[in-house]
Amino acid sequence: MELSSEAAAIRETVREFALEEIRPTARSADETGQFPEAVWNGLAELELTAMTVPEEYGGLDVDGLTYALVNEWVAYGQLAVATALSVHCLATSCIAVFGDDAQRERWLPEMVDGRPVGAFALSEPDAGSNPAEMSTEARRVGDDYVVNGTKQWITNGERSGVVILFAKTDSDDPSSITQFVVPKDVDGLSVGAPESKLGLRASDTTTLVFDDVRVPAANRLTPEGEGLSAALSILTGGRVGIAAQSVGLAQSALDLATDYAQQREQFGEPIAEIQTIRHKLAEMRTNVQAGRLLTYDAANALDGDEPPAAAASMAKYFASEAAMDVTNEAVQIHGGYGYTTEYPVERLYRDARVTTIYEGTTEIQKEIVARDLLG
Ligand SMILES: Cc1cc2nc3c(=O)[nH]c(=O)nc-3n(C[C@H](O)[C@H](O)[C@H](O)COP(=O)(O)OP(=O)(O)OC[C@H]3O[C@@H](n4cnc5c(N)ncnc54)[C@H](O)[C@@H]3O)c2cc1C
Asked: Cβ distance 89 to 54 under 8 Å?
């Protein structure tokens, strides 16, 4: 697919940043479970934390394809960094799309610099694939809402300073879900212990516990009852971002496996000469490219009038399943070395696992595609 000169330039900048700044810290960030804050500062300097903010608030307001390219190449460096960035962008998008002028003016000019970091709090212990089952309540009391409940799996849970919160204004009514913007330092909001995860270990994933948290009505981003549809429309763009991240992660595994196959010799020749290995690489490359084309197609459609839900879901499930297959084969091509932390494909294999789960599982994406097809 031909890229505009502007998109190609951004891709090149992010690719260089991924190779020179993100990749070198990826292993230690994974091992220590510490998010690489210096890398985040670098992303902010490149204005990538401002990607989805309108220009009048200091943002870049990039088109869908550019958003995908940035996600792809940041994830080429490390998925945990791309995940943190895309969730920050989900948060700024919610304020940009649903906020009024006063709310945009209050939050966006500082969030473009990446501090405060944004979080997106939809999921709960008992409400994942079906967020309508959430139990967090925001009860109106005078000019405030009083929020009680627990949000789970919140990316940037610890690092964030601003949380986009979804809560029911009537605990008995699933159609009362409403969207709020909440500063993290508000009384009664506490952060749980970090989840101990299979992969994505440098990404901070926590619970957020709301205990009689008073949120001014002025912080409500949608009318009461319009929060869930707002979340789902924003997640369409989010899923294109995850699809792009899956492509970047898989490309990274493919590149590492290609290099390794050309260097590693067995039976007196590089294993890249063995037809089985060659065909593995051919299949991996085809999977990466198919995921990329579906992703770019959905990304371009983000600039249209309607959120391209089915296209985003096709891209998300195909590219994430492809990332699992490609990283699996990359480990196989590395043999025993691929099973050790000495080689980055081990981390890529673990990281890939989450891409078919977060922002809607593969099963849910297929349901969205089937519903679009069948009605
Ligand atoms: C590392 C990580 C980071 C995350 N970050 C965030 C975040 O920042 N903010 C946030 O709000 N959430 C976040 N999530 C939550 C994530 O979006 C949910 O985990 C995901 O939506 C699945 O929900 P669940 O875990 O409750 O699984 P469940 O909904 O319990 O699903 C369990 C299984 O049942 C299947 N299933 C459920 N319903 C159906 C159905 N109708 N048809 C077919 N199959 C079905 C699922 O596909 C899955 O295989 C994160 C999760 C992880 C792991």
From this structure: no
Kindly give the distance from the C-alpha atom of residue 5 to the centroid of ligand 1, in angstroms, as a whole number: 38
The string of pLDDT tens digits covering residues 23-43 is: 999 999 999 999 999 999 999
Nearest CA to ligand 1 atom 12: 123
Query: Amino acid identity of 253?
Result: A
CA distances from 140 to 123, 144, 151, 171, 212 (A): 22, 6, 19, 12, 12
Q: How far is CA 314 from CA 75, 196, 240, 242, 364, in A?
A: 19, 30, 9, 12, 11
Q: Report the sign of the C-alpha dihedral through residues 310, 315, 320, 325, in that order.
A: positive
Catalytic residue ranges: 359
The percentage of residues in the chain with a pLDDT greater than 90, rounded to a whole number, is 97
Q: What's the gap in Å between 45 CA and the centre of ligand 1?
A: 33
Residue nearest to atom 45 of ligand 1 (CA): 363
Give the per-residue pLDDT at 259: 98
Give the Å distance between the CA of 359 and the centre of ligand 1: 7
Helix (H, G, I), strand (E, B) or coil at 200: coil
Query: What domains can be seen in the chain, in order of their start residue?
Result: 5-116 (1.10.540.10), 118-224 (2.40.110.10), 228-374 (1.20.140.10)
Q: For residue 213, what is the DSSP state?
A: E
Q: Which tens digits make up the pLDDT trace of 151-208? A: 999 999 999 999 999 999 999 999 999 999 999 999 999 999 999 999 999 999 999 9
- Residues touching ligand 1 (Cβ under 6 Å) are 87, 120-123, 128-129, 153-155, 197, 200, 205, 354, 357-361, 363-364, 367
